[in-house]
Task: inverse folding
């Protein structure tokens, strides 16, 4: 959800298509959260529930895709220019772009949810600090903890990549081996607490993204010749992933658990490759749609941070209707309002920050639309 590509400005060509990939990913994130209640509130097995269940599951690529994009941009940006100074700059920027927002938004949601639910607030620092440790201050906050761990590990990965040829060539097998081994250990040997918030659960996505970043030009050339292949991989993985859950829930047919993981993995990789090529395709053709999507991508990290508060406020303020048709419209409206409202708030904040930074003479990164970036920069 960040915009690490600003690190490449003046060094390598900017990967503008990744702003569009982020846009599709954040759309999926908000869609998952906006439809989550619609997967359980309508009558079990009703067309409405089945539809929203499928839509909700279809967004499963979103968080791993953001992690992949971070890997792509970081390895792409720093390859060929990694040294001790670059490492120091990297950690300094992480403190500003991730650690500080993490603490501020944790405090915001700790206060917000108390007041929304009780119209009162009490600060218990012991509870707050426990929530910080595992990013339990909101249902969406685990992503920041995962990205933080990836950022801690990245300098080690980048140093090995710069100094050893074997590590560069073994990024993908290493990532898959660690992630698969962590899953096997947690499933068969030990019940790992908070495993969904630990880096090994997502390491394959980050290092596959890293490999793509290191060899971006050859990957881009392959995608231009094999767009149908990436689309087929995405559709196959997504269909199997969604189908397995639907078979389990509605027909009682349960597959071996590893197939859920494998199909999701294939779905994420296919989605990343397809959306990268789709982004390049859109950049050269539909300028108006591209400008809108690029703005969303640039604001994706802010949208991620803001949207749960708007969603909770909307749900508390406007209760769901009992009529199934009105309920479906209500769910659709909730998604549109939450997404548009989040984007608008972040966009306006970015504009205001842009004016302030111009006044202080600081450089402001922008997208192809000219909109200021509001995400994680590097």
Result:
């Amino acid at each position: 959800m960040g915009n690490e590509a600003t690190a490449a400005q003046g060094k390598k060509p900017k990967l503008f298509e990744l702003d569009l990939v982020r846009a599709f990913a954040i759309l999926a994130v908000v869609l998952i959260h906006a439809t989550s209640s619609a997967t359980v509130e309508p009558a079990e097995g009703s067309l409405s529930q089945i539809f929203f269940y499928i839509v909700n599951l279809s967004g499963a690529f979103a968080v791993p895709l953001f992690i992949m994009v971070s890997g792509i941009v970081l390895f792409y940006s720093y390859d060929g220019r990694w040294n001790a100074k670059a490492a120091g700059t990297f950690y300094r920027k992480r403190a500003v772009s991730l650690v500080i927002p993490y603490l501020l938004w944790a405090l915001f949601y700790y206060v917000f949810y108390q007041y929304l639910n009780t119209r009162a607030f009490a600060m218990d620092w012991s509870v707050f600090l426990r929530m910080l440790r595992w990013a339990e201050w909101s249902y969406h906050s685990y992503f920041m903890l995962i990205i933080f761990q990836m950022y801690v590990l990245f300098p080690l990965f980048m140093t090995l990549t710069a100094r050893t040829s074997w590590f560069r060539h073994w990024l993908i097998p290493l990532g898959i081996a660690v992630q698969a081994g962590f899953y096997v250990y947690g499933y068969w040997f030990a019940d790992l607490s908070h495993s969904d918030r630990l880096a090994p659960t997502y390491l394959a996505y980050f290092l596959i993204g890293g490999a793509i970043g290191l060899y971006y030009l050859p990957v881009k050339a392959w995608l231009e010749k094999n767009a149908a292949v990436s689309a087929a991989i995405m559709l196959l993985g997504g269909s199997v992933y969604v189908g397995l859950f639907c078979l389990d829930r509605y027909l009682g047919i349960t597959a071996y658990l590893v197939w859920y993981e494998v199909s999701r993995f294939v779905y994420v990789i296919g989605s990343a490759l397809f959306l990268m090529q789709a982004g390049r395709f859109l950049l050269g053709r539909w300028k108006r749609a591209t400008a809108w999507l690029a703005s969303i991508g640039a604001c994706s990290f802010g949208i991620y941070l803001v949207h749960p508060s708007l969603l909770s406020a909307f749900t508390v303020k406007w209760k769901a209707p009992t009529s199934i048709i009105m309920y479906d419209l209500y769910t659709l409206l909730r998604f549109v309002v939450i997404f548009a409202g989040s984007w608008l708030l972040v966009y306006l904040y970015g504009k205001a920050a842009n004016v302030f930074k111009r006044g202080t003479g600081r450089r402001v990164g922008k997208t192809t639309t000219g909109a200021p970036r509001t995400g994680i920069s590097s």
About this structure: Confidence is low (pLDDT under 50) at residues 3-10, 368-372, 374-378. DSSP finds 15 helices and no strands in the chain. The longest helix spans residues 324-360.
